[in-house]
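Hello forum,

I keep getting stuck at the same step: I have a sequence, I want structure tokens, and every attempt I make locally crashes halfway through. Rather than fight my setup again tonight, could one of you with a working pipeline run this one for me? It's a single chain of 127 residues.
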Amino acid sequence: QVQLVESGGGLVQAGGSLRLSCAASGRTFSSNAMGWFRQAPGKEREFVAAISWSGGNTKYVDSVKGRFTISRDNAKNTVYLQMNSLKPEDTAVYSCAADQTEHAWYVPLSSRNYESWGQGTQVTVSS
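Reply #2:
Ran it on my machine without issues. Output:
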């Protein structure tokens, strides 16, 4: 498993941007598919985006396609979530997660597939 720490959350007006970072410790980061999930008050945790350990395959929930971009820098043990054109409905606690896998193009979509989780960072979008 890896230890994950998110940063970059905050308060932003609708239409603004934020970039979330997730720093991982451990030598196995480059063999982990990485995902971002979010949970709004009173709602279930929702898949947002994920990236294979090769970086060559990404997936997004429909509501963020064209606005959010997931990327990773294996040399820095960090995965990013660039969020543009933010909307009030994007308000949630965002958490990153890691799934160790031998498959370079595998992108897990279900939270059940991830073994390691960060504590989360709050993103609040005001209207």
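The CA atoms of residues 66 and 84 lie 9 Å apart. If your local run keeps crashing, start a new thread with the error log.
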